[in-house]
Amino acid sequence: MNPRLVALFKVLALVLVVVVLFLFFPFALAFVESAARNIRQLWWLILLIALACWLIWGVGRRHN
Hints:
The protein has helices spanning 3-24, 26-41, 43-58. Helix content is 84%, strand content 0%.
């Protein structure tokens, strides 16, 4: 089987599992919606965390 097709099936399976879990546990969906709202308001904090990760793991690497 084509590796690209296998990856597509894995992504579709993951999406299906997430949808089924949200249907069985509606409070999880409410939690995710609330978290998304908070992330939208605190986008600058996410940028600072991404910058810190880049500085920790990205700057010290040698590029061949």
